[in-house]
Each structure stands twice: as C-alpha cells, then as structure tokens.
Amino acid sequence: MGAGADVLWQQDPEIADILDGEARRQADSLQLIAAENFTSLAVLAVLGSSLANKYAEGYPGARHHGGCEYVDAAERIAVDRATALFGAEHANVQPHSGSSAVLAAYAALLRPGDTVLAMGLDHGGHLTHGSPANFSGRWFDFVPYGVDAETGLIDYEQLAALARHHRPKAIVCGSISYPRHPDYALFRAVADEVGAYLIADAAHPIGLVAGGAAPNPVPYADVVCATTHKVLRGPRGGMLLCTAELAERVDRAVFPFTQGGAQMHTIAAKAVALGEASTPAFTAYAHRVVEHARVLAAALSAEGFALTTGGTDTHLITADPSPLGVEGRTARARLAAAGIVLDTCALPHGDGRGIRLGTAAVTTQGMGTPEMARIAALFTAALREEPEEAARVRAEVRKLTRSFPPYGR
What we know:
409 residues, alpha/beta, Aspartate Aminotransferase, domain 2, 7-stranded mixed sheet, 4-stranded antiparallel sheet
C-alpha cells in the first residue's frame, strides 16, 4: 500500500483492507485492459504527497491563490517536458482526464451546433466522439466515419466523401479500439481541403509516440488530446498539445471554461512520468509493448480468435471470440473468472461484441514473448465451459503473475 499504510490501518481499517485487496488483485491477475498500466513508484510517491493539499486555480505566475511558487515550478517542468518530448509548440497538462482534454479541445475550437466528423462509436469511436449520452453528442452535430467491412481498416474514401459533403468544422482522428496507425497526413489533407480543424485523440497511442514506437500526430493536428496513463505509464489524467497560435484558446478552454483548480499532485506526477518517458529505457519499453502485442495477436489468431484487422501496429488487440463459440461479454466473464482481466468492444459490421486487450501492463511487469504465447493458450482454456478448467487456469495465472510481481511484491 505504500507510505502511510500503518497510519491508514490504524485510522480506517475498512478502507485499508480495500487498498490491500486491490493490490492483491492486481498482483494475482493478468492485467490486460488496454487503458491500464502500472506507474512507477516515483509517480505513486508524488500522488500521495503534500502537493495534494495545494489549491492552484489558474496558470504558473497567474494563480488565484497564494503560496504557489513550488507548484508553479512543477507545472512548468511538466509543460517543458511535454513540449520537448512530443515536439509541440504548446502543452496544457491540467486536464483531469482524457475526456476533459477532449471537452476543452472542442470548447477551444467549436460552438454548439457545429458539425464534427469522427469515428462512429460502433466502429471504435469514444463516447466523446458523439455519443448521445455524452456532452459531445448533445452539443454538436456528429457525422460518423467507419472502417471497411472487409479489411477492418479506416475507409479513407468514405472519410473524404463525408467531409466534402458535410463540410465539418472539425475532424477527429482517434479511437479506443482501432489497433492500426492512422494516416495523419491523409487526415490533415482532408481537413485542409474542407477548411476543418484536425483534432487528434491520441489517448491510446501517445505513450507509444513518446517511445518512438508510433507516428506522432503533433506535426499534423491543430490540437492533440491525450491521457497520461495507459502506455505513457503516468498518473490518471489528461493533456493537450497544440500550436502556438491556439495556445491561449486552449488554455482558456481548460481554465476557467471547463475546469477549476488544477490537481497539482497529479500534475507533478505527470512531470515525473514525462521525464521517465524521455529516457532510452522507455523507448525500449514502448517497442517491447508493440512486439508483445504482435506476438500475442498472432498466438490468439492461431488459437482461433478472429482479429478485427488481421493484426495490430500498437499495444491494442481487438478480436472476435465467436469462432470459439462464445460472444464477447461471455468471454470477458469466463476470462475474469480465471484471473484474466480485459474489456469488450464493438465489432464493426458484426453482431455481438468482441474483446479488447493490451500489452502495456504485462510488459511493465517484465513479461516477454514466451509469456505472450502462454497467455494465448490460457485464453482458450479459460473459455471452455468447464469449472475445473477455470480453476486450473486460475492457478496457472497466479503462478505466472507471481513470477512477474508489480513493484517487486
């Protein structure tokens, strides 16, 4: 549980027990949720630090509260590290989440009722890409583009045709379950042709970008929205990268338009993670993540899973388990019972749901290509509707994860 554990056990054993249980769950299960990872101990230390006490509305040098000299320094470091790492002219590290970053990007560039072109939710788009349950779908007129029915790849001809017909104010490039690299240059060309802003929602690939294992959207997009967890391996939070021309609009869209006080302990932890991401060790890590995803994807395909794009370029794998006689939600439940934790996802042009997983966390734990093949075999065994098989797989999962404990536990 880290620093302060003894104090917490004495003061609030009920919550202490929950923290202890979650630590055991993470250590004893395979963490394959594509949006999750294990932060460094340094990041955890900052999250539980005295910076959590500080109120700091505004920006460095222009706060609405006194006593901000140290948090100002931390935020400046985070901004400098972000701009240097991604080659951006400006960075805002205050968004509380990836969704908050997208909200701020829309607020900076759009007005209610504007038309926006984004990947359809049933093809891998995020809630902030036009879901009627989300602010995006209520405030803006979203037009969805999708993927080709045969290849599962983005249909760029459809994208261009829709852009020419609808003349959107902005085009959003990004998804939560598309395992291939987008063609940012093509997105930029389409946006320029119709006079639209290009917003890159790089919440998933930004950590790979930091490690040189994925193309960088910064040279192409007007605004890049990102998260600082996932592959980037930092605290849960968001980040915006943009041109100098849009810097003031983006900053004002974050504060005071969409957020109040910045979470300074999280911002300082983002600075730590960005520093870690600038090292050769992180570059090697990011490339291992991709290598492991490709090996695991090939192994799952050999086990009978249908990969939605025939493979992956990233940390993400999306697959249809129906050839094994099970639908995505059922597959997730059976895998969870065996200690294998992942998500479901939409299956474009298909019925039911697939499964979505990623290799960032298991790579952080030190697993390699042999473990990826072993994990694929455990998937198939866990999906058999046999209680004794689930128990056997659960024991195998514990044996595997205890050989690669997070934080050396």
